[in-house]
Amino acid sequence: MKRRAPRRPSPERAHRRREIIAAAIRLCAERGMENVSYGDLARATRLSRPLIYFYFPDLQTLFMEALLLSSAELHRRFLAAVDPAQPGLAQINAIGRAYFTFAQEEPALFAFLAHDESKQPKGHREHPLRARCLADLDSTMSLIVGALQRGRRDGSIRRDLGDPGKVAVCLWGLTHGLIQLAITKQPVLEDKLGAPFADLPAFGLDLIARSLRAPAKPRPKK
């Protein structure tokens, strides 16, 4: 007896799921995951609470799926930004620019990833989707590590930086922190310090690049 293939969700159901996930991302970005309820989602989507519960019987699964969607979009942008033919330092710079562009074009996704408060509560089993979230993070970090290693081989990045994994984490933190600072402190930066948001990406990435760049080789004496 042949086993029936699992049914694909209808276009209408797939649309409803995307609609609910999009609302969850937007609300969580604004107020944090712990402050979002089924009632909030119902009002944001103009759907009934029972219907939202039908698609997502628990909010943690909804938040995990939203996290997967957000991290996948960021990783897709990083992959698209990296030209395999470029030197490693140029790849690192391209990833940094893609991160700034992501924050500007998808502010809700960036804020949602910045919250990422979907940690497993104490005493509960780890959510099945958590492993996929961590796998996405590993893929993104591997992309940065790969660019660093390439830069060391091609001579565009200095060799004395230490463990590439630690360097990748620091680069992520520096870039992410700069973006958050520019977003949350934008009026202060622009009015008091004369540092408009539009200028920060290029300046910050150039500062990072200078710390990574391999020293120029001395010219041979004549």
Indicate the CATH topology of the domain at 64-118 and 127-212: Tetracycline Repressor, domain 2
Q: How far is the first residue's CA from the last residue's CA?
A: 84 Å
On the 0 to 100 scale, the average pLDDT is 85
**What series of H and E elements makes up the topology?**
HHHHHHHHHH
Radius of gyration (CA) equals 21 Å
Helix percent band: 55-70%
**Uncertain residue segments:** 117-121
For CATH, the homologous superfamily of the domain at 64-118 and 127-212 is named as: Tetracycline Repressor, domain 2
Task: Please report the number of helical segments.
Answer: 10
Strand proportion = under 5%
Q: Which CATH architecture of the domain at 64-118 and 127-212 would you pick? A: Orthogonal Bundle
Shape: elongated
Number of strands: 0
Sheet having the most strands: none
Q: Assign the CATH class of the domain at 64-118 and 127-212.
A: Mainly Alpha
Task: Provide a descriptive summary of the structure in words.
With 222 residues, this protein is an all-alpha fold. The chain has a domain of 141 residues: Tetracycline Repressor, domain 2 (Orthogonal Bundle), CATH 1.10.357.10. 68% of the residues lie in helices and 0% in strands. The longest helix has 25 residues. It is elongated and about 80 Å long. The N and C termini lie far apart (84 Å). About 2% of the residues have low confidence.
